Every structure is written in C-alpha cells, then in structure tokens.
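[job 4417] fold queue: 2 targets
>>> target A
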Amino acid sequence: MNATISCERVQLAAHRSHILENAAGLEISGLSGEVWVTQHGDSRDFVLRPGERLLLSQPGSAVLGARTAAEVLVVRREARGRRPASLWLRLAGLFDPRWSGAALRSMGRGRNGFC
C-alpha cells in the first residue's frame, strides 16, 4: 500500500499555468473547472474534469493549464519497493538543458513546493 507523503491544492486562474517538477508518480485529481495536463516526453495531452484522476508516469516536468478558473489536488505517494533511477539516467538529467540555472529561474523554482 502506498502512503500519501505530500499534497497540494493548486488553484489556476483563467489562462494561467503551473509547472510541476519531478512529476513521475504524482496523482492529479480534478476538483473544479477543466485543467489541461501535458508531460515532457509524452505526446499525449489530457483534460481533467472534476472527479477525474490522472497518474503521471513520465520523469521530468508536467504543465497544468486552464482556460477558465480551475482547481486540482496534486498528491505524491511514497513508492515502496521502487528502485532508484540508474546512474545513467541521473547523469543524463545533469545535461538536460531544461535544468540549467536560467531555465530554473525563469520557471520560478521553489515558489510552488509541496505542502
């Protein structure tokens, strides 16, 4: 059984977006409005409505967007029995241009952490 280790209610104003870092394993639940969800490395996009859930599977970031005001619940669960990422995957992440200092500053990293 997976235990909840953190949660965050994300309120999106109309025509605004929110970036989730390290999104693999996050569960997003629609509370109000419609929220568009896209993940780096996944060609599919999703639209969450109230009562719907989505489990993010891709490593990297995910973007939430809304045309009208919306709210979602973002839950991170403890992954039991999961192996840590291989050395090669961790090293490859160091050379990913999305994580350069300028990119992180432009995303406002650290302002929207988990509760």
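>>> target B
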Amino acid sequence: MKAAHAFAADNKTYTDRHEFHIKRGLTARPMEVLMGDVHTVDLTISAALSSKFKKLRDAAFDAAIAGEVSVKAWLIAWMDGSSGYMWATPVITGPGQGITQQDVALSLYEVLTCPWGGMPGEFMIDNGGEFGFLAESVIRFAAMAEISGLGVVKCRPYHPEGKARIEGAFGVIARGFISALPGYNGGNILKPRLKSRGKAIASYDRGPDRLIEDLHLAIAQYNGTVQQGDLAGLSPKAMLSAKAEATGWQAQRIDDPYMFDLVFSREERRDVRQGTITIGKRRYSGSVLAEMIGEKQVPVLVPWRDPNGPIILFRDGVIHHLTEETFALNDREGAVRKSAMVGLQKAEIARRKATGAEVDVQKMLSDAADLGPVQHNAPANWSFNAIDKGGFIGAPISEAEAHARQEEEDRDFLEEYLSSKRTGRREAGGGNHQASLNAT
C-alpha cells in the first residue's frame, strides 16, 4: 500500500524507490550528447551583483557584506556524454533575478566556440524555461548545415536515465572542491553547517571577481581529477582526449560569433516602415531596407546572446545586420545618414518603375470593382401593348354585348335625369299654390 500511496501522492518518492530504471554508460565519441543543467552554488553570499564595471561590482559586494542586499550564485553547466568533461559559467544574480535564456546562450557560446567542444549531435536538457530556445535553434542549424539527426531531448523529472551524470557531478564538485571555499554551507540553506555551536559560518568574503575565479577553478579541478567507475581511473579531461584520439573526432566548432547568433536566435516578423523595422521600442535600420520599401512580415532574427544588440536579416543568401541608430540634435552625421537612405530609396523606386509594367489606374480600379450585371431571379413577364379604356381587351363578353350594356347604362342615366327634372317641376308648382292661398 505504501507504493500505491506514493504512486498517487508522491511521484518523486515512487520514482526514486520503486520505478524500474536502466543504466546508461558513456557514449563512444565525444560530443555525441551534450547535457545541460543549472545548479545553485552552495555558498552563503550576502551579495555580489553582476556588472561589467569592476568598481560597481566591488561596491555592491561591500554593501552585501553589510547585509544590505542578498544574492545567489549559480553554475550553468554543460557536460560531454563521452567523458563527463564539464564546461561551466558562473552567474551571480541579485534580488528578484534568475537564470535567463540570454545567460544560457552566453554559456553555450563558450562550448560551441571551444576547440574541444563544438556543436553536439544531441542536446539533453530539462524542461526549464531557460533552455526553451534550443529546439528552434537546433532545427535552424540542422537546416543550414544540412545535418540530419541533430536534435534536442528533454528529460522527464525524477528520471536519472537522463541527466543523472551531470547532476551527480554537481554533488562531486560541491563536496570535493566548493566545500574548500569559505562560506560553504553544506548544501542546505535551511539547515546550514555551523562553525561552532550556535555560530553560523561566515559569508564568502573574497569579492565578486575572486568568487568567479574560485568557481572556475573548482570546475577545472573536477575536470582534472581522476575518477573511478566509467572513467576507470582517468580524469574527465583525460577521457575526452583519449576518445578523441581513438575515434579521430574533431570538434564541429562555430568560431564566428555572427554565425552563432544566426543559429541561436528567435525569429520575429515585422513590416518595413520608413526604412526601419521596429521590435519593442527599438527601431533598427540598414541599407538593405531601402530595397524593401513596403514589404510586409519580413522575418528577422533577434540573437539570444545579445537581444539588445544588432538584429539579423537573412536575404538572398546574404547576412545583413540591422542596428539601432540615434543621432544627437547637432550631429551632422544624422543628416548624412538620412540623405544616403533617401537616395537609396529613390533609386529603388526608379528601378521598380523601369522594370515594372506601366500602371493603368483605371484598369486597376475596374479590376477591383464588380462591373458585371446584377444577379437576379427569372422575372414573371407582363406585356403592355395598348390602353383599353373600354375594357374590351381580354373582356369575357363580346363586342355586341358590350354595346348593348353601354346603351342600357345610357338609358338608365337618361331616365334618372328626366325623373329628377319632373320632380323639380312638381315641387315648384306646389310652392306657388300655397302662396295663392295665403294671399286670400
């Protein structure tokens, strides 16, 4: 019954204790499978905000030591399925921040441009939203490079057949290497290790730059340390080298950042208006847009690595980079740029006039209008040939009968008239007689 209860109420417990699992070993060739995962670094850090300005990072770190801000450290890691060799990118996030698709793209860039990394045959990742862009990007790369079989596998939760090796490696790195750093809390932020009875371990206090160096060093120590099991006394780095030599494997590297952006980007479709394409609140322009006056739903690519940088327009086999341009009020380069673009647009209009057929406006209007007859049902015909005031046409009686009827009507009218005349005379005679009587 415990198993039945776990199956119904606690999927993780059931999967860990009861569900059948298979064992998977290393792949024969390097980079046949590349596993990706995100892991929280088990260090107690008051704060270390990420910035490209060293002074700002140091100031943020000092504020954190004072307890003003709390932050987190992460590792975005990628592991070769043939050796367990790991690439990892440390990420330090501030309050309310997390790992984004841009962070993952920047981390993956380091793998795909590495001479002993490159594009894998298959990605194996979890269902986290930060990896959501990979499927579309891999399909695009496979089409461009004419590679079949390239794909993305999303692992099911609580199933160690998937990313168990990389998740186990995180444990090895934490216990064997990160545990040697100051501020290691034992991996349980709710119940951390204590320096002594009732006294918590001090925070990591070496500064943000040193923190990143220490995390990179921990990964390098892991890659260079001998392991047993599948590695049979070799380090992950040594196993990668051995399998590359044994199989003659060469990295399928993307060494051009623009090529990386062409693959790992999201597609947007926009209309060309005033020689620009707008995405969000940004307006992008480029000379190629002068040739695309009035075009609708033009596909462009927004790189995941730098979504606020130039966008990509792939047209007729040529890669064009569209940039956001802003000129100061007194910058004469703005007028020069406008003049150049307007000139290109006029040249495009002239080209269209020269190569296109002459436009017949009336024909266009007629083609757009319905000039055909009115659609109607068949009418009931009614003929009209003469005016029949006597009622002869179509009458149910003969002509002689009609004349006799007319004579009868005339006699009736005459008798009525004569009768009215006689009545009038009698009334007149009676009036005179009465008058004579009154006189006597």
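[job 4417] complete. Note on B: The first strand starts at residue 34 and ends at 40.
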